Amino acid sequence: MKTVSLFFMSVALFAQAPSLPKGVTRGPSVEGIDEYHLDNGLEVLLFPDPSKETITVNMTYLVGSKHENYGETGMAHLLEHMVFKGSPKHKDIPKELSEHGSRPNGSTSYDRTNYFETFRATDENLKWALDLESDRMVNSFILKKDLDSEMTVVRNEFEMGENNPLSILIERVMSTAYLWHNYGKSTIGSRSDIENVPIERLQAFYKRNYQPDNAVLLVAGKIDEAKLLDMIQGYFGPIPKPTRVLSPAYTVEPTQDGERSVTLRRTGDVQVAMEAYHFPAGSHPDFAPLDVLVQALTTTPSGRLYKALVETKKAASTSGFDFQLREPGMALFFAQVRKESPLEAAHAAMVEALHAVITNPPTAEEVTRAKTELLKQVDLELNNSEQIGLELSEWEGMGDWRLFFLHRDRIGKVTDADVLRVARLYLKDSNMTTGMFLPTAKPDRTEIPATPDLVSTLKDYKGNAAVATGEAFDPSPKNIDARTIRGELQPGIKMAFISKKTRGNSVVATMSLHFGDEKSLQDESMAATMAGAMLMRGTTKHTREQIKDQFDKLKAAVQIGGTATSASVNIETTRENLPAVLALVAEVLREPAFPEKEFEQMKQARLASLEQQKTEPNAIAQISLMRHMSVYPKSDPRYVRTTEESIADTKAVTLDEARKFYKEFYGASNAEISVVGDFEAESVQQSVSKLFGDWKSPKPFHNLNREYKAVEAVNQSIETPDKANSMFFAGMPIDITDESKDYPALVLGNYMLGGGFLNSRLATRIRVKDGLSYGVGSMFSAPTKSNGGQFMVYAIAAPQNVAKVEADFKEEMARALKDGFTAEEIAAAKSGWLQDGQVSRSQDNELMHKLAGERFWDRTMAYDADLAAKVSALTPQDIVEALRRHIDVAKISIYKAGDFAKKP
Question: Do 672 and 768 belong to one domain?
């Protein structure tokens, strides 16, 4: 489990708003988000968005790992898990979440914990979600028997993090930078505290913090605000205001008085150098120019760290981020360095680049670029009510949701002088945690300012003017087909357009190019991969940096890449910017420059990423299973390489080979483009024809899909020394297509075996009952026009528990194949699966990809409607007989990777 333009009407209708329910008072409103308060202290935020056919209910509790006492580390996160274990009115929460087709989760951070579910917008679902959150707010069971099983799940999540040296290094740096404040302790907690926390302390922590006066309820999506307030008062109003008084946090981290150091020695294949600085609270005015400073230093490829380390080949990659928290946080900068390169040189170059910010201040161009990218991210978030509904949890944890808007405004006002001022104030050696300690005769220390008084800071804050809302859109297959404009453009581009009003005039688009056939693509996989990766690294007209800057100015999130058989483009932008974005995308696709320097940098980054996989249980087990089930010769583009083969091929491939592949294969003779959102269909059609109409593919295309071939079942264990977590993968090929008679039964059967939210047979047994795994599930896929179906199961677990995971898996599979599923299980699964499909079609990004896939196969949404009807009509006998025909436990191959030789 896990971490704006809004409505014009919010101010205009304020005076006309209906009278509030008894016990509800109105708070401030900013850009379409309205705040209310119940008498018991519950804060309520409502965010209507009629353009969504979904509703998100997000409950944030203002308690996180910061609030844990001695012996309680990880308690807030452990409690996050426990609150899914049931309450008097909702005894099986995972089952209910699946039955309502919701997309739920929870997350814990330093300052807050949240729980959310996104579901189809119906009164029934909304009442259920409000009833669920109100009941588990104060009535969750929090039982010893549940703690005994869930503790091992959380411990497994802890072990999963222990496998990642970068993650552990961040923990070590934070714990070294903070001497006393709890921000220095990781949210996951100490293993000993996770294993030994008494149930009484967990129950006391829950009763103290999970109360209405310490919570914020946010509901976003297709809602009727007046009607919803009555519902909220009905469900939450009866909860009494607690008599206890929460003690304010009073620990203040003392000013750092000199460089600190930490060294981590663990198994791994990539070195990391890291620098960290104390920053003020996220609500402090200095944080906006600091945010801009961090962006200017870390963005790729224009960031100073990238230029100083990656372009000079001292590091394979660089990155960084800041912790924007309620109390003074941190900024971290790091570089990943391959083992064959000296870490000391990279570390020295990073320190030099950070120091140089003072002597060579960020230019106006750098500051503008950083601000543009940060504000673009804000604008894209604000166009998605579901996303912003979750994002506001972070700002509530910081002290007030309106800080999100205030911080945006502050970023917009940041100047070059502001960035230089904060760089001088905070980027000091005495405020830095590094790999060495150097005494100094004259300490130069940074006094971190106090957390601002938010009452006075936000007293008169109103935010910007709101923007237009979107239309209510029916995501049924019938309506989608009715609204879809389909056609074909020269030289062979199939199109699928849905033009509709959206929040913030947002629009998403995807384009796929298909090329080659089995014969022409022989031995071309690596050249094709590198050619696709080079597309965004410069054109004949613009450098990589200029391309990124231009997309940022256009408020566009764009990904372009390619594989051995296709290239793809994904776009998220706004109506007014779509034509310019398409033009730049066409330039990237049609005029790549293949600069040699970028090619070498890309190879180094790819090698560093691959070398990380060499000792990772997840990659080792998954690749091993996929190789076993995919029986193609190495020359075939469907061949699955080992990590070592990928490293060798990456080292061997040349820039000329990548250029040659592009020249011989790329074109638009076999392509699809799908656009969903606020755009003018005829204009976009004309643009696409103008930009791509004469771009013909040099070679013929024939789709390469998986073909079924039976393989002998194997059971292998692979040793990965010094890894606290292990990986279990099981699978078998299945002779089936997505048009086969048994396909609907296998879809629902798989959903009950390993789908849903902690409610499947495998999750209930392995995670919930036996507490062996943090993550467990199954996957079933069947291609179109080809019979290469696959069934796979995965689970993460401590190495000493993998044998039990395997035994549980076999027993549950055998039970399902012998006895099938109950009518009650099937009814609940049908409801959950169908509603999940509705939620998926309500997301423009997912709908866009679905339409593109349909155009490739010349299908319409009638296929989805037909599949839904067939799933709805399934009987228990249909499902168990289909499973028996296609799945045999004795034919399933199993691969396990972990440190099995080490004694627990």
Answer: no
SS3 636: coil
- Residues 534, 583, single domain; the answer is yes
Residue 243 belongs to some domain of the structure: no
User: Are 771 and 887 members of one domain?
Assistant: yes
Are residues 379 and 555 in contact, defined by beta-carbon separation less than 8 angstroms?
Answer: yes
Q: Which two tokens stand for residue 565?
A: 């058989």
Give Cα separations from 669 to 488, 509, 705, 742 (angstroms): 11, 19, 19, 35
Residue 845, exposed/middle/buried by CB under 10 A (0-12, 13-18, 19+)? middle
What single-letter amino acid sits at 881? E
C-alpha separations of 515 from 123, 583, 665, 694, 696 in Å? 48, 22, 6, 16, 11
**pLDDT tens across 177-201, in order?**
999 999 999 999 999 999 999 999 9
In this predicted structure, the answer to whether residue 39 has a pLDDT above a threshold of 80 is yes
Our measurement of the distance from residue 500's CA atom to the centroid of its chain's CA atoms, rounded to an integer in Å, reads 26
- In angstroms, the CA 366 to CA 545 distance is 11
Spatial neighbors of 181 by CB under 8 A, at least 6 apart, are 66, 251, 252, 253, 327
* Domain residue limits at 188: 9-236
How do the residues of the chain divide into helix, strand and coil, expressed in percent and rounded to 5? Answer: 45, 20, 35
Tokens representing residue 393 in the block:
């949890």
Handedness of CA 448, 453, 456, 457 (dihedral sign): positive
pLDDT tens digits for range 116-140: 999 999 999 999 999 999 999 999 9
d(CA 418, CA 371): 12
Same domain, 677 and 764: no
435 and 498 both lie in a single domain: no
Q: How do residues 71-120 score in pLDDT, each as one tens digit?
A: 999 999 999 999 999 999 999 999 999 999 999 999 999 999 999 999 99
> Pairing state of beta strands 432-434 and 260-261?
parallel
Which pLDDT score, from 0 to 100, does residue 462 have? Answer: 86
Q: Tell me the pLDDT band of 445, cut-offs 50, 70 and 90.
A: low
Residues 544 and 688 in one domain: yes
If you count DSSP H runs as helices and E runs as strands, how many of each does the chain have, helices first? Answer: 33, 23
Whether pLDDT at 204 is above 90: yes
Antiparallel, parallel or unpaired: β 33-38 and 215-221: unpaired
CA distance 744 to 866: 10
In this structure, what token pair is assigned to residue 264?
Answer: 């981590």
pLDDT of 410 > 70? The answer is yes
Q: What is the pLDDT of residues 273-329, one digit of tens each?
A: 999 999 999 999 999 999 999 999 999 999 999 999 999 999 999 999 999 999 999
For residue 353, the domain's CATH number is: 3.30.830.10
Q: How many CB atoms lie within 10 A of CB 824?
A: 9
For 138, counting Cβ atoms within 10 Å of its Cβ (0-12 exposed, 13-18 middle, 19+ buried), the class is: middle
Q: Angle at the Cα of 493 (from 491 to 494), degrees rounded to 5?
A: 140
| Separation CA 298–CA 836 (nearest Å) | 38
* Percentage of residues in the chain having pLDDT higher than 90: 86
Asked if 339 and 271 count as a contact pair (C-beta separation under 8 A), the reply is yes
240 SS3 class: coil
Of 692, 727, 754, the residue that ends a domain is: 692
Contacts of 734 (CB under 8 A, 6+ apart): 708, 746, 780, 782, 789, 790, 791, 886, 887
Instruction: State in Å, rounded, how far the first CA of the chain is from the last one.
Output: 25
376: closest CA among 229, 221, 581, 679?
581
Contact 530, 561 (CB under 8 A): no
Segments in 446-504 forming alpha helices (H): 454-457, 477-483
pLDDT at position 444: 61
Residue 4 located in a structural domain: no
